[in-house]
Amino acid sequence: MAHDDFYGCPCCSGTFGGLFAVNHTVRELKGQAAPGNGWSCNWSIDWASLGRRDFLKTGAAAASLAALMPNDTRAQTEVSEPTTLFTNANVLTVDADFSTAQAIAIRGNRILAVGSDAEVRAATGDEATVVDLGGKTILPGFIDAHAHAVSGSVVDAIMDYVGMARFTTVDEVLNHIATRAAQTPVGDWLVFRNFDPAVQEGADALTFAELDPISTDHPIFILNASGHLAYANSKAFEASGLTNDVQNPPGGEFMRDADGNLTGTIKNNVAFLQIAENYPAMKQVNPVEGLLGLLEKWSQQGLTTVSELSLGALAQSPADVQVMAAAAQSGRMTARLRAYPFYTLGTEAWDNANVKQGDGNALARVAGYKLVADGSNQGFTGLQREPYLNREDRGLAYMEPDELTATALERASKGWHLAIHGNGDAAIDNILDTCQTLADAGIDMARVRPRIEHCSILHDEQIARMKALGVSASFLIGHVHYWGVAMRDQVFGLDKAQLLDRCKSVEEAGVGFTLHSDFMLTDPNPLHMIEMAVTRRTWKEPDYVLAPQERISVDSAIRAMTSEAAWQLFSDHEIGSLEPGKLADMVILDQDPREVEPDEIKTIKVLETWMDGKQVLAA
């Protein structure tokens, strides 16, 4: 693939939101959240103790939230107090000592007791429902500390995934599209996401030459994994009223061949939205239903808490908060949500909407504030100390150092936890300089709990600075697995690629870390992410291990997706380990990840997922 066709990930700049500018619900919510319309989130309310009529105060926002909510709006935590005892189990508590137990009991939505069969039976009494697990393994529910559940869920609801986790080659993607076309009524749209020719072998782009032979009766639209490129067939152009003389909008481009004819490849959303906005589902999809559906799907992977690291990207306004609120009030949440307002809206927009750190409840909560120091390494927009391999450029600073520091100081002084996106080593330098400024200003860093998102290229002296400043790391481990060969051969070269996702080095230095999916960049599969961190094998060359010295133990990888993730999300007091008093979020597996071959961890089956004391998945 040509260098110029690499781009940053969508989360860097919140580009998802532009996709849904035409959505009826999003437009209404955004309009009602606009300054001067009297809208306020009023998040200080305990959702669990209030009914629909009390929570929905007055004004246009109340009406819009009411329209989003299903008829059944019983508070999810209003449950009786049944007791369930799981015995004959292999309980991995992931407490401070990573202790194991034989049994665990839950009462209502809380963990009642953990220990030996005899100890837990004594604590539960005679009224408990007893479940004999026959030696199966129980873990805390998995936690994805960095995803885009609110903004990404709407895309997921209406676009078919064709990314590298499903298809290895471009031909496989085209065959899948052809199969879908054969099954779909003439005239209906076929829309797909996460196509990535940077890693999927075959053509560098999809054009009329590849897509028109599949169908000229169905509009076909395909979104690149970067969110900055898209591809369409001639029928999609026709259905959108775009002819060969269409003009390029500022910042976008309809690609053309040497003769000046359209090819079907489109750069940047200001151009490809002229096609995507004509897909009927774009206008009609309900964001709350999309979010609830995504969380239900993720229960199959054992996820019980997920995150939104660019809150506001969907509606391009604080109105995203209403989507969270409606989901939490629906009584249908199958995973918890922790959200981070996104910097691109500006701090005043969030303050005017009365959104504060800690707002919400145990089901959905504002966990911190998101800043972005640079772009993505595979997109050649991560900010580097030295130029990229065979290039002269060093990437981009999405926030200049002075702006980054000023915003971080302003937020931290008001009690906000900070999650700061940093991929390149120079960007991480800027983040650590910002954190040093916070510490020098007397900010309590233990309260801020700063974390570096992705934290991709890391030098030894930076790890030492992280330890000294109380900064943790959250690694997109898919960078190693899916893009590791590209990082070695196209982005950095062999030596610098060894600095990617240094899990073992930060662990040895006493720096906390997590593993995440960055959905939609990769789809979350916690067991596979654990395997990636343990083996560091690459997708394109399965026998190649990128930086084998950075492999970690299974225990450490499990902790990164449970207790450490809970700590980063300011939820360690309630989730992340199986200990009495904590919320009853857990996953039951058919095998112990520590007892199988490392390359087989991803094949372990999730048998049951429990969230808030309820079984939300039974395989």
UniProtKB/TrEMBL annotation:
Protein name: Amidohydrolase
Residues annotated as domain Amidohydrolase: 130-616
CDD domains to which the protein is assigned, alphabetical: YtcJ_like (cd01300)
Pfam families assigned to the protein according to its UniProt record, in alphabetical order: Amidohydro_3 (PF07969)
PANTHER family recorded: IMIDAZOLONEPROPIONASE (PTHR22642), PROTEIN LONG AFTER FAR-RED 3 (PTHR22642:SF2)
